[in-house]
Amino acid sequence: MRIALVGIGKIALDQHVPALADSPDWDLAATVSRSGSVPGVDAFTDIDAMLKAHPDVGTVSLCLPPVPRFDAAVQVLRAGRHLMLEKPPGATLSEVHVLADLARAQGVTIFASWHSRMAHGVAAAKAWLAGKTVHKGRIIWREDIRKWHPGQDWILAAGGMGVFDPGINALSILTEILPAPVHLRTAELDVPANRQAPIAARLNLSQDITADLDFRQEGPQTWDIELQTDAGHLALRMGGNLLEVDGTRVDGQDSIMGEYPALYARMAGLVRDGASDLDLAPMVLVADAFTLGQRTTVDPFDF
Amino acid sequence: MRIALVGIGKIALDQHVPALADSPDWDLAATVSRSGSVPGVDAFTDIDAMLKAHPDVGTVSLCLPPVPRFDAAVQVLRAGRHLMLEKPPGATLSEVHVLADLARAQGVTIFASWHSRMAHGVAAAKAWLAGKTVHKGRIIWREDIRKWHPGQDWILAAGGMGVFDPGINALSILTEILPAPVHLRTAELDVPANRQAPIAARLNLSQDITADLDFRQEGPQTWDIELQTDAGHLALRMGGNLLEVDGTRVDGQDSIMGEYPALYARMAGLVRDGASDLDLAPMVLVADAFTLGQRTTVDPFDF
Question: What ipTM goes with this model?
Answer without folding.
Answer: 0.93
